[in-house]
Amino acid sequence: MKIFYNTKDIQTYLAIQKSQSIGFVPTMGALHEGHISLIATARQKCHIVVVSIFVNPTQFLASEDIDKYPSKLLADENICRLAKVDVLFVPTVSQIYHKPETKLLAPSSKAYILEGIDRPGHFDGVLQVVLKLFHIVRPDFAFFGKKDAQQLYLVQNMVETYFLDISIVPCETVRETTGLAKSSRNSYLSSDDRIEADQISKSLKTAVKQVQAGEHSTELLKSTIKEKLANLSICYVEIVDRQFDSIDTIKPNDTIILVAVSIGKTRLIDNIWL
Ligand code: AMP
Are the CB atoms for 203 and 229 separated by under 8 Å? Predict the structure, then answer.
């Protein structure tokens, strides 16, 4: 596995591999089984698998403590080697952001709902760094988790809006045996917090069962989820179609139920696709 810390070096290296398909998995590190499943999907589909680890400052709010974001670089390197990653890119902030620069505004108003309300400017920062990484790596395929459904939608939207020649591959959410969606942020949770966090996926499952039993009113389904999460601090419970428009009734194969809660200082998101 080649490791690059420098933008020019990785660009030069990848430019030589022209005839090979490049699969790209952007991450913020502290890798877990969720990331590994993205890498495995890329491994199956592409000749060259590139993983980036970059904790992007422009997607964190001033109130969010970027310095506390878990960092496990040595473990991450080993995970990437075991997962047969070809190229690991670990740039410094100054490699990605040369001068102070204004954020690119996300080209969709959907960046300013849900996560975008609770975390203003978050997706502008996400798309800014993803666009830069796309230009550096020039992948044929890029792999994103459905766990971050709004991010996945916005990246897909950016690729379409700016006519980027990249196929975005959505990947299923990987969960703990309890149902809790794997997340680097889970390491912040105490064992008591984890018991509370397990309620999130349970509430989503209950909603799915209700849908299967014939309940299609999104208001009723949201109420059920909120009741199940009554002990937690709910940021939002929302039901949208795949274009992230709110819907009154469930649309089969075109619905996402999204939940965000805070447990102590840890914000957790999860969703289920119907
Ligand atoms: P992050 O390092 O949190 O920025 O995540 C990097 C990529 O991994 C994103 O595309 C996420 O959606 C994806 N990801 C994070 N957690 C999971 C999970 N539990 N299952 C599948 N993909 C995930």
Answer: yes
Tell me which residues have their CB closer than 6 angstroms to ligand 1: 27-28, 34-35, 37-38, 144-145, 147-148, 171, 173-174, 181-184
Ligand 1: distance of its center to the CA of 55 in Å? 13
Q: SS3 for the chain, per residue?
A: CEEECCHHHHHHHHHHCCCCCEEEEEECCCCCHHHHHHHHHHHHHCCEEEEEECCCHHHCCCCCCHHHCCCCHHHHHHHHHHCCCCEEECCCHHHHCCCCCCCCCCCCHHHHCCHHHHCCCHHHHHHHHHHHHHHHHCCCEEEEEHHHHHHHHHHHHHHHHCCCCCEEEEECCCECCCCCECCHHHHHCCHHHHHHHHHHHHHHHHHHHHHHCCCCEHHHHHHHHHHHCCCCEEEEEEEECCCCCECCECCCCCCEEEEEEEECCEEEEEEEEC
Distance CA 2, CA 21 (A): 17
**Residue range 234-259, pLDDT digits in tens:** 999 999 999 999 999 999 999 999 99
How many residues are there in the chain?
274
35 carries an active-site annotation: yes
Residue among 35, 47, 122, 216 flagged as catalytic: 35
According to DSSP, the residues that pair with 230 across neighbouring strands are none
Supply the pTM of this predicted model: 0.96
Structure tokens at 88: 């690991």
* Cα 164 to ligand 1 centroid, rounded to whole Å: 22
CA of 34 to the centre of ligand 1 (A): 6
**pLDDT at residue 99 in the model:** 81
Q: What is the pLDDT of residues 117-142, one digit of tens each?
A: 999 999 999 999 999 999 999 999 99
* Among candidate residues 47, 40, 120, 113, the one with its CA nearest the CA of residue 80: 40
